[in-house]
Structures are given as C-alpha cells and as structure tokens.
Amino acid sequence: MPETIIMTATRKRFGWFRWLCTVCGLLFYLADIGSDLLLSVQYFKGGHITWAALTLVFVLVGSLCIQIFSYAWFKDDKENYDEDNKGLSTCHLIGIHVLQIGIFTRYGHLLKRSFKALRSDDTTDEEQFHLFGLATDLSMLRMFEMFLESVPQLVLQVYIILEHNHHSELQYISMAVSFLTIAWATVDYRRCFRRSLPNLKEMPSGIPTAVYLSYKIFTITPRILSLTLFIMLSSFNTVAVAFIWLVGTVWAFVEETDFCTSRVLEHLYRAIVGVILLFTFFNVKGENTKVHMTVYYIFNVGQNLAAPILLFLFKPEYGGTDFFLPITFFIFVSHSMGLGFLGLYYSLLHPRQPCIEDQTDGQNHERKTTRFEQFLQI
Question: Along the 378 residues of the chain, how does pLDDT read in single tens digits?
Fold first, then answer.
C-alpha cells in the first residue's frame, strides 16, 4: 500500500470546475470527431472520394493511436498497481479498445470517481493526486489526437477551400471545432501536466494562461497555412513534409526518449513526436532547451515565409487571387505575434521555481510522476 502524499495548501484540489472541464473536454472530443465524420460522409455523397477518404483516415489514425496508448496504460496500471485496477479484465480491455471506446471508458471512470470524491468530505490527498493523474492521462491522449487528427484536418480542409474553391457550412463547422479543440487541448494539457507533478509549480490562470495559449495559437496557425500553401505548390511536396516529419522522428530517437515500457510503443511515440514537431516545439526530455527552441523557430520561420514566396515565384497566378496577400500577411504577423507571446511568457510569466512539498514517495506517486516527467512539454 503506497504511503500518503502530503500536499500543501497552495496546490489546488480537484474541484467542481475541474470536473466541468472534464465534461467540456469530452464534449469537444465528441464534436470534433462527429463533425469530421459527417464531413467525410458529405464528401462521399458529393463524389469527392479522395477528400472523404483523407478526412476519414485522419480520424481513424488519431483514434487508433490513442487507443493503443490507452490500452498500454490501463494494462500497466492493472498489472503493477492494485489501486489502479478498475475491475477490467484483459479481454474487456482489449474489447473496448478494439471498439475504439477506450477513451470514453477513461472519461467515464474519471467523471464517476471525481464526482464521488467531490461529494465526500474526507477525500484524501492521495486520492486528489490520483484524480489529477487520471485527468493528465486523458489530456495526454487528447493532445495526441489533436496533432494526429485535428491539426492535419485543418491543413486538409484549408487546402480544399483554397485549391479547389470548395466550401460548405459543415466544412466551416468542422474547422471551427478543430480549432477550438486545439486551443482547449493545449491549455488543458499544460495545466494538468504541471498540476500532476508535485515538484512543479502550477500554471497560473488568467494572464499567464492567456499568453501561453496565444503563443501556441499564433505559431501553430501560420504553420498550418504555410504547409497548405507548400502543398498547393505541388502535391509532391507532401514528400518534403514527410521528410520534415522524419527529421523530427530521428531527433526523438537521438534524444533517446524513455516514455514507454515497450520498445515498439516507444517507436510509435517517437513517430508521433515527429508529427507534433511539424507544427510546434516541445521539450521531450524535461531539460532546458532554449538553444533547441531557438534553432527550431529559426527554421520554422524560414519555412513559413518560404512557402508563399515559392508559390508566387513558381505559380504567379496565385498572386492575383483574393486569398494570397491576406494569408501571406497573416503568416508574417501571426508568427511575429506568436514569438512575441513566447518571449513574454517564458521571460516574465512562466513559473520557474519548483513547488516545494513535504511528501513521501509511494508506488503510485512514483509511477505517475515518472510517466508525466518523461512526457513532452509543449
């Protein structure tokens, strides 16, 4: 039996607001997946088989990957930590994840367990820590889904609108939901991540959260647009995008990430790292990466500005379109603002000092801390 984790009063507890945030996260997930599936059906009925297939592929790839990690974490908790045994047999675990409902099982378990804790007056600190651990597991999975499904989906839909001048209300709804999902998942993961580790200060709400969100949104959005313009230059440029992904994946191998207990799963994780690096920087080792971040964004800015320039030079007919100048201007201004928010956040608002707590490391605390510390910090 793990020993009790003694938490200071400065750490926020899992309250009703956090419970409602979990409900909102579930609703965003359902809306994101549902709108994309409906859009795929609409494309199919309209005879756009390729668009329908690509829209569906992004949904399936994202869902498949998060089910794989969800199953691995369930299995790890079940086999090694008695208090994490949720009463699910191995066959049951396999079944729910094959049916792609593992993440809904996680949402249901967290909502039920946290609701019970909120109605109780004697919830232990250990239970509070465990609830935030479950919430962080979910936020990790949602972030995987965000970069494997929501962000690529935006690239695809923007490409369809700009290149083929095809648009519909459902398409705009799908894009809006994907964008909101990106914003929500980014902040939710960051806050859950820092809250789940007792040696880190929590991410302050209010202005620091707004600035951090602005940094991510104003750097990811121009990246989506620049990749779209790059693909519009030639469909063969998807090979170049794949090469950039490969470079990011190789970097994850060079960094020797140690996130998964299985070698095969670790390789999948590093491949996902490569995808995320297409759109934003993150720290895969939990170390000071000021130099790495600087180099990353230098290349990132260069690639973003090169996309509209190359499109104008090799396909000058796009220069006369209604969207070319506004998008080019937006890429430049948005990325400049994003980097400005990045500098503002990490120079003035980022919590630097570790949160000092009196604690005794129990098995559950050690397992959760190890998992989260080794995970990427976007």
Answer: 333 333 444 456 778 888 998 999 899 999 999 999 999 999 999 999 999 999 999 999 999 999 999 999 888 877 655 444 455 778 888 899 999 999 999 999 999 999 988 888 777 777 777 888 888 889 889 999 999 999 999 999 999 999 999 989 999 999 999 999 998 888 888 777 767 666 666 666 788 889 999 999 999 999 999 999 999 999 899 999 999 999 999 998 998 888 888 889 999 999 999 999 999 987 776 666 788 888 999 999 999 999 999 999 999 999 889 999 999 999 999 999 999 999 999 888 877 655 444 332 233 334 344 455 544 455
The Cα 306–Cα 128 span in angstroms is 49
Query: What type of residue is 278?
Result: L
Q: Give SS3 for 14.
A: coil
Distance CA(364)–CA(135), nearest Å, equals 15
Q: How far apart are CA 63 and CA 86, in angstroms?
A: 22
Q: Which of 366, 24, 1 is nearest to 184 (CA)?
A: 24
Q: Indicate the DSSP class of residue 146.
A: I
pTM: 0.87
Rounded to an integer, what distance in angstroms lies between the CA atom of residue 301 and that of residue 309? Answer: 13
End-to-end Cα spacing for the chain: 34
Cα–Cα distance for residue pair 59/36, rounded to 1 Å: 7
Nearest to residue 335, comparing CAs of 298, 292, 370?
Answer: 298
Which residue's structure tokens are 């709804």? 173
Rounded CA-CA distance 156/170 in Å is 14
The Cα–Cα gap between 65 and 144 comes to 8
Q: Are 11 and 355 in contact (CB under 8 A)?
A: yes
- Give the number of C-alpha atoms closer than 13 A to the C-alpha of residue 349, restricted to the C-beta side: 18
- Taking the C-alpha atoms of residue 289 and residue 30, their distance in angstroms, rounded to an integer, is 35
